[in-house]
Amino acid sequence: MGPPALQSVLGDAPVTTPGGFLLVLALMTPVLGALAGFVFGGRAAERLAVLMAPIGLAISLSILAMVLRTDAALVYVVGDWAPPLGVALRADGFSAAMVVMTAVVMTAVLLYARTDFSTPAGIREARRPLSFWVLVLGVWNALLAVFLSNDLFSLYVGLELLTFAGVPLVCLDGRAETLEAALRYLMFALLGSVLYLLGAALVYGTFGTLDLTMLSGRLGRGPLGAVAVALMIAGLFAKAALFPLHLWLPPAHGGAPPAASAILSALVVKASFFLVVRLWLGLSPDLSKVMASQLIAALGAAAILFGGGLALRQARLKMMIAYSTVAQIGYLFLMFPLLAAGAGGVHTAVLTGGLMQAVSHACAKAALFLAAGLLAGALGGDLIAGLRGLGRTLPLTVLAMGIGGMSLIGLPPSGGFRAKWLLLSAAITTGQWWWALVMLAGGLLSVGYVFRILNPALARVEEPLALRAPVSRQREVIVLALALCSLLLGFSAIVPANLAAIGIGKAPEVTVP
């Protein structure tokens, strides 16, 4: 605990809650797997990663169940050293759902990747498999650090771990174009890190603590706090690839191995978005003014229209899916003016809509990238023009792509529909009809690029499409399971309506002109 004068300014420190130890278990599981991989080699790392997947999923579901049962955030104060001297882990409803999303996608990707990243028989050690398994576990740990940390420096460490584990995944094959894409990704990520660190330093210099709970609602009281939060959020925009800072994303996600693309596009970009939500709601109520929130949403709208338009023009399937990520991320940032204007039920609905968009997009996008990997392996490339008649040859894969596409478009009863419907309804309820028009236009663009995939795939052909290599039925089932997750999220019984609001501070009510 700090001195009395400091406590009077900072308020109460967090304390460990029942079940808080689950947060430590969740963090340690992938760490132990990655460290063991370094010691015992690539084959062991693969086995450990596959073993860690169900364990991590079970722990994540336990965290979510505890949050729902107690209707409050889980907290663990590390070493009983309360902030500002120590650090605390925290899982509210929003972060618990992100933790489960991460575990589900990771489990599917790890099972899928065994075919591509197994150490060849007769070889003692190979660089590519060892690097992949250790890096993926590193990404998982970094994501959990971001979703569960409760102070700005631990969050910075989590973001840096995410960058340095995620960037090498882009260039695992060592090709010149993927190396260039990885370097571009690194440059944007480092720019984001510098801005975030400057903001965090300003906060610490002003308030003497970096704990989010103790800083809650205090940073917006003066210009220095506002500048600090603005710097951190601007840095996170670069990491989240929000327009116009998206230039690194399409070549990085489009050129990486399919399993890596799925993780990067489904999960990694969501970490920065999640942190923007936490900073916005927890630290900067005074920044939740109309102009700032409208500016952020304008960037999101530009991402929806620009990303969707460019996705329509792509000749390669993976590049189309990558540009679709740019567009779908834009929907997440439409939340902020709706949160600023909404109250009570509308506020909760917007939070739920944003959470649903993040989770359903993660499942759908991972399914699409993994499906694209199956097609590239079977056809020898991922040109959309080469998909003609594919539905007759690989019906399960095409079905998975169709279901994933439904969620991206926002067709009922998918999770994407529920997410976009909640956001669109909130836009109309709060009188911000212009965001509703953007969402409708984005939906039409999504129809266009999903149609470009499914139209040739479902075309009638005289002879079945010849495959250069067989496709594993097990991997097709994994892809289909992820796509079905994005569909089932549309049913309200799967995601309780108040989940996203559990343990999250409420934004102040302001008037929208």
State which percent range the strand residues make up: under 5%
Tell me the overall shape: globular
What is the CA-CA span between the terminal residues?
Answer: 44 Å
Strand numbers in spatial order across the main sheet: 1-2
Q: If helices are DSSP runs of H or I spanning 4 or more residues, what is the number of helices?
A: 20
Radius of gyration: 22 Å
| Overall pLDDT metric | 89
Largest sheet: 2 strands, antiparallel
Describe the protein's architecture and organization.
There is one protein chain. The chain is mainly alpha-helical. The protein is built from 20 helices and 2 strands. The N and C termini lie far apart (44 Å).
Features:
two-stranded antiparallel sheet; 2 strands; 513 residues; disordered C terminus; mainly alpha; single chain; 2% strand
